[in-house]
Design a protein that fits this description.
By secondary structure, the chain is of the alpha+beta class. It folds into 2 domains: 241 residues, no CATH class; 127 residues, no CATH class. The chain is built from 12 helices and 18 strands. It has a 7-stranded antiparallel beta sheet with strand order 2-1-4-5-6-7-8. Strands 9, 10, 11, 12, 13 and 14 form a 6-stranded antiparallel beta sheet that branches. Helix 6 packs antiparallel against helix 7 and helix 10 crosses helix 11.
Length: 409
């Protein structure tokens, strides 16, 4: 199971240079007022976990991060996108100076940081001591799943590590509202193709569709060429069982359309319709659910898509406290990165040791510099972590009250 152990920011937007964060294997909570970069940090974590910096192609940045798996040594990745001045373009109209960006990356293996891979836009990719391949045909270090592609060209256990990266390809940030809910129910494209090979269905590993593996597995059995849509009930999918039981319905169903089929090669899915029935037979579609119920559908659909990682903004928005408990429990062994302005979330976070407290809470605050907004991201200090753990052990105050009384949230 892939884990993000550490993230260091040398240059990224308004973040203070040298910000270095360590993370818990379990639930990590980002604390801070509005406008302190919590959502931006979640987006950056999502880019790191998915190995996809394409959204930053026109931005200057330099970051380092460390990923680990249960069986192989860690991988340390350094990714940069440096601004390069271009000569003026001779035209009848004066365009003025323009900027270009040059991406580069280095990958190190194990705690001893053995050099493994190097990439730059001019020379391409080199593995170990071998000369660079040249830029032709080499994926950029900003492209989606670049790290998977790079590691697959390395021998032995290094290439095995790439397999642990594949399930993280769908770990986008779950928004604080209903964007994901609308994406899966109102669009005809869930972001990627599902290949059809010899009767088996296989999602594109480098651009995985926003479709749970449990649905793909059912489609293996049910797939028919040119079939326009497929339906599943709560007897078919654990996702539907959970939603049915949490919202008190007696039955549930999910229908999805085949929005495009490329012969016998691949297909695209979309236009999901969730249906629920009350005990008396009354039908409710997803459009008639309350805001909180829609948030619940979005969260558990997200969990079904992401077996190892959760990146969620304002997780408890619209959720009843009973649902919050179930949602936290459902995260299970996944590594989670969460934000919340609601104290309810904090009171459900397990507190096991001062060291775990320090890793589990990231403090985000604003600190303007030279008249411009600035952000400081840091783990809780050892003293604050010990104080919080000690106060929690007394059992008088909730976690949210301890954080507020000590000026940490």
């Amino acid at each position: 199971m892939l884990k993000l152990r550490r993230l260091r920011v040398e240059k990224f937007r308004s973040v203070a240079k040298g910000a270095e964060l360590v993370f818990s294997d379990g639930i990590n909570v980002l604390l801070g007022q509005n406008g302190t970069g919590k959502t931006t940090l979640l987006e950056l974590i999502s880019m790191v976990v998915r190995s996809d910096f394409s959204a930053l192609a026109k931005e200057e940045f330099a970051i380092e991060y460390e990923l680990s798996s249960p069986v192989e040594p860690c991988v340390v990745v350094v990714v940069r996108n440096d601004r390069v001045a271009m000569a003026q373009v001779p035209t009848p109209v004066e365009l003025g100076p323009r900027d270009a960006f040059r991406p580069s990356a280095e990958v190190f293996w194990g705690a001893e940081r053995r050099p493994l891979l190097r990439y730059d836009a001019e020379h391409g990719l080199s593995v170990g001591d071998t000369p660079p391949h040249g830029p032709a045909g080499t994926r950029s270090s900003l492209e989606r799943s670049f790290l998977v592609q790079f590691l697959l060209q390395s021998p032995g256990p290094v290439s095995n590590f790439a397999i642990h990266l594949l399930p993280a390809g769908k770990a986008h940030r779950l928004d604080e509202s209903l964007d994901l809910f609308r994406k899966v129910t109102r669009t005809g494209d869930l972001m990627g193709d599902i290949g059809i090979r010899g009767g088996l269905l296989s999602p594109n590993p480098f651009a995985p569709p926003l479709v749970p593996d449990s649905i793909v597995e059912k489609l293996w059995v049910l797939h028919e060429p040119q079939k326009p849509d497929y339906s599943f009930t709560h007897n078919d999918l654990a996702l539907l069982v959970t939603l049915k039981e949490m919202m008190g319905f007696s039955a549930s169903e999910l229908r999805l359309d085949v929005t495009e089929e490329h012969g016998a090669a691949s297909m695209q899915l979309g236009n999901l319709v969730f249906r629920f029935w009350w005990e008396d037979g009354t039908l409710i579609t997803h459009e008639r659910l309350s805001y909180g119920q829609k948030r619940l559908v979005a969260f558990f659909y997200y969990l079904a898509c992401n077996p190892y990682t959760v990146i969620a903004d304002e997780l408890v928005n619209g959720l009843h406290h009973r649902w919050i408990t179930t949602a936290i429990d459902a995260i299970g062994q996944r590594q989670a990165f969460l934000t919340s302005q609601n104290p309810l979330l904090l009171d459900y976070i397990p507190i096991t040791s001062a060291a775990e407290v320090r890793r589990s809470f990231v403090l985000c605050r604003g600190e303007p510099r030279a008249g411009k907004p600035g952000w400081i991201w840091e783990n809780m200090s050892e003293d604050d972590a010990q104080e919080l753990f000690s106060a929690y052990g007394v059992g008088v105050e909730h976690v949210s009250e301890i954080l507020q009384s000590r000026g940490l949230w």
